[in-house]
Specification:
599 residues, alpha/beta, Serine Threonine Protein Phosphatase 5, Tetratricopeptide repeat, FAD/NAD(P)-binding domain, Rossmann fold, five-stranded parallel beta sheet
Length: 599
C-alpha cells in the first residue's frame, strides 16, 4: 500500500477546516488508527465529495478493513477526477485483486507504472498479481525491478523469495529472506518463509529453528504453529505436534487446523479424542476433503465400514480428483454394470493397489468389461489378473460407460467386514520367472524354511518413522538355525545389510529384483514373508503366500484394532506393538513362533 509523505490538497481550494479534517484523518490512518481515521475522512467528503485524496485514502482504509467493494468504488471515484495519480492506480489494483479480479488489477498496476516506471510498490503489487496467475518468472522480474528502484523494500524481498521457492530455487529464496531479515530483523514472516524453504530442502534442524524464531517474534502466528507441528510430527514427535496444533486451533479454529490436531491425536492412538475435531471441521466446512478422509480412516479402523466407506467417497481434493478423472465419462457410483465397459483407475501407493486389485473379480461378476489404468511398474502383474480385459498406463484412449477410482469400489458395492472379497490368490507371478528362481532358492537348503524379509518402507510416507524399523532390530532372528533368510528390501534401507549378520546377507538377491514381477516370482518360491507394513506385504498376501506383518502401535486403518488377523488376507498374521516404538517385544514374539515351527 502506497502512502505519500505529504498530501497536497490544493487542487480543490479547500477551506482551512477541510484541510484540518483531512490531515487529522490521514495522520490517524498512517498511525494505524483505522477506526479513528474513518469519521474524519467521511466528514471531509461531506464537505467536498470531490476531494481526491480523501476519496483515495478513505478507499485505502476500507480495503484495509476488508470492505473491498467500497474501496474499489471510492478509489475509482478519485481516478475519475485525477487519472494521473500513480499511487491511486496501484491501490485500485489492490482492491481489484482482493475482489478476485486479477486481470483488472494488472491493468491498474500497468497504468501506475506507465505514469511512474520506478514506482516500486506498483512493481511489487504487479508481481503479486502475476504470481497469483502462475506467471512466476514474470513476477520475479517485477520484484527485481521493484528492488532496483527501492533496494530496502522488504516486502519485495519476501515476495521474490516466495516465487523462487515455488520454482524450487530454495537457495536463492533463502538469500532473499536473509536480505529481508537484515532490513527488518523483527519480521516474523521472514523466518516463517525461511522455515518452509529449509523444510523443502530436508534441512529440518534449520527449519525448526526458523519456525521457532517466527513464533518468538509473533507468538500468535497460527500458521507457524501449524508448520512447526507438521514438521516435528513428520519426524515422529506426535505429542509435540499436538501441542503446536492446539495453539493454532486456539488462535484459528479453522478446518485445516482442526484436522491437523485430530491427526496428531490419531497418530498417538487416541482415536476417541480425534473424532470430535474432524466433526467440528465438517460443521465449519461440510465439503472439507481432508476431514472426510481422516474421519473415514478412523471409522474404517473401528470396523464401521458402512459409514467409513461413505466418508471415504468424499475424500477428494479438487486437484487430486481432476488428476485421475476421465473427461466425458461418468464416475460409477453403483449403477448396474451388466454389459457395460468400466475403467478402473489406480490411486495412491503400490500397497493400496495390491490390496484393492481384488475388486476386478467383483466388477467382472457384476457384468462389466473391466479395463484398468495403473502405474507402469504394475502392468505385468495386473495384466495377469483374471477378469482384466486390458491394462495400460497413461491417458485412457477407449470408450467407456463408467470409470471409478480403485479405492472407491468398496463404497459402491457396499463392502462390510463380513463381505470383503478375500479369495486369494488374485495376483499371479510369471511361471517362467518362478522356475528361474527355484534353483537359486532351493540351494539354500531343503531342510530350512525360506523366509523373505522387509524391514522398511518408503521414507517419504508420513508415519514411516514408526512403521519402519532397522535391520538391527531383527538381529535376534538371524540366530534361528532352521530359517534361510531372503532379503526383499529395496531402497536406501537395503544398505543396512552391509553390517548385518551373515544369515541375513547370504541369500541377498535384491540386485536381481528389477520389478514387482521379479519380486513376485521370488516370493512364490518362499515359505513365508515377514515384513513391516509395506507394498511387498500386500503383494505377497495377494499372491496367496503366508505373511507376517509387524505393525506399530499407531497402525494404519486397514489393520483394524487389536486383531492378530485380517479379513483382507486369510494367510496373514499381525504382530502388533503395544508401546509405540517398541519393536523388541514384537520381534521376540516372531522369534518364538518361528522356533515353534509355526507359519
Amino acid at each position: 500500500m502506497e502512502y505519500p509523505s505529504r498530501v497536497d490538497s490544493s487542487q480543490t481550494s479547500p477551506s482551512a477546516h477541510l484541510v484540518s479534517l483531512f490531515n487529522t484523518a490521514f495522520q490517524a490512518h498512517q498511525a494505524g488508527q483505522l477506526e479513528a481515521a474513518g469519521p474524519f475522512y467521511r466528514e471531509a467528503l461531506a464537505i467536498d465529495p470531490t476531494h481526491v485524496d480523501a476519496l483515495h485514502y478513505y478507499g485505502v482504509l476500507q480495503h484495509q478493513l476488508g470492505d473491498h467493494e467500497s474501496a474499489a468504488r471510492l478509489i475509482s471515484a478519485a481516478l475519475r477526477i485525477d487519472r494521473n495519480n500513480a499511487a491511486c492506480w496501484s491501490n485500485r489494483g489492490l482492491a481489484a485483486a482482493a475482489l478476485g479480479h486479477q486481470e483488472e488489477a494488472m491493468i491498474c498496476y500497468d497504468q501506475a507504472l506507465r505514469l511512474q516506471p520506478d514506482f516500486a510498490d506498483a512493481r511489487n503489487n504487479f508481481g503479486v498479481a502475476l504470481q497469483a496467475q502462475g506467471a512466476l518468472e514474470v513476477a520475479i522480474e517485477q520484484y527485481r525491478l521493484a528492488l532496483s528502484a527501492e533496494p530496502a523494500f522488504v516486502d519485495a524481498y519476501l515476495n521474490l523469495g516466495t516465487a523462487l521457492a515455488k520454482l524450487g530455487r530454495y537457495d536463492e529464496a533463502l538469500a532473499c529472506y536473509r536480505s529481508a531479515s537484515s532490513l527488518d530483523p523483527h519480521l516474523a514472516e521472514v523466518h516463517f518463509n525461511a522455515g518452509n524453504a529449509y523444510n523443502a530442502q530436508g534441512r529440518h534442524t534449520e527449519a525448526i529453528a526458523s519456525f521457532e524464531q517466527a513464533l518468538a517474534l509473533r507468538p500468535q502466528y497460527a500458521e507457524a504453529h501449524i508448520n512447526l507441528g507438521s514438521l516435528i510430527g513428520k519426524l515422529g514427535d506426535y505429542a509435540g505436534a499436538e501441542s503446536q496444533y492446539r495453539r493454532a486451533v486456539a488462535l484459528k479454529p479453522n478446518p485445516t487446523n482442526l484436522v491437523c490436531l485430530g491427526g496428531s491425536l490419531g497418530a498417538q492412538g487416541r482415536l476417541d479424542e480425534e473424532e470430535g475435531f474432524y466433526r467440528h471441521a465438517l460443521e465449519l466446512d461440510p465439503h472439507y476433503a481432508d476431514a472426510h478422509q481422516n474421519l473415514a480412516w478412523l471409522l474404517l479402523k473401528r470396523g464401521d465400514y458402512k459409514q467409513g466407506w461413505a466418508e471415504f467417497a468424499k475424500r477428494w481434493r479438487k486437484s487430486d480428483y481432476e488428476a485421475i478423472a476421465v473427461p466425458g465419462v461418468a464416475e460409477w457410483r453403483g449403477e448396474p454394470l451388466q454389459g457395460r465397459r468400466l475403467l478402473l483407475v489406480g490411486e495412491q501407493g503400490f500397497g493400496d493397489h495390491f490390496q484393492f486389485l481384488r475388486y476386478v473379480r467383483v466388477l467382472e461378476q457384476l457384468g462389466a468389461t473391466v479395463d484398468i489404468c495403473v502405474r507402469e511398474p504394475l502392468l505385468p502383474l495386473v495384466e495377469r489378473i483374471p477378469g482384466v480385459h486390458r491394462a495400460f498406463s497413461g491417458k485412457p484412449d477407449g470408450q467407456y460407460d463408467f470409470w471409478v477410482p480403485m479405492m472407491s469400489v468398496p463404497s459402491c458395492v457396499g463392502t462390510e467386514l463380513s463381505t470383503i472379497p478375500a479369495e486369494v490368490p488374485y495376483l499371479f507371478a510369471e511361471q517362467t520367472k518362478i522356475k528361474a528362481w527355484r534353483k537359486r532358492v532351493d540351494a539354500a537348503g531343503k531342510s530350512k524354511r525360506k523366509v523373505g524379509l522387509v524391514w522398511a518402507g518408503s521414507p517419504t510416507f508420513g508415519n514411516d518413522r514408526y512403521r519402519s524399523m532397522t535391520l538391527a532390530d531383527l538381529n535376534v532372528l538371524s540366530e534361528l538355525e532352521n530359517v534361510a533368510w531372503f532379503p526383499l528390501q529395496k531402497g536406501i534401507a537395503h544398505d543396512q545389510l552391509a553390517g548385518a549378520p551373515d544369515a541375513f546377507r547370504t541369500h541377498d538377491f535384491t540386485a536381481d529384483l528389477k520389478s514387482f514381477d521379479d519380486t513376485a516370482a521370488l516370493i512364490m518360491n518362499l515359505d513365508l514373508v515377514i515384513a513391516v507394513d509395506t507394498g511387498v506385504a500386500h503383494l505377497a498376501a495377494a499372491l496367496g503366500k503366508p505373511v507376517w506383518v509387524l505393525l506399530p502401535a499407531n497402525s494404519d486403518w486397514r489393520w483394524l484394532e487389536a486383531r492378530n488377523d485380517t479379513p483382507w488376507y486369510p494367510e496373514m498374521k499381525l504382530f502388533r506393538q503395544t508401546l509405540l516404538g517398541d519393536w523388541a517385544t514384537v520381534v521376540n514374539r516372531v522369534s518364538e513362533e518361528l522356533r515353534s515351527g509355526s507359519l
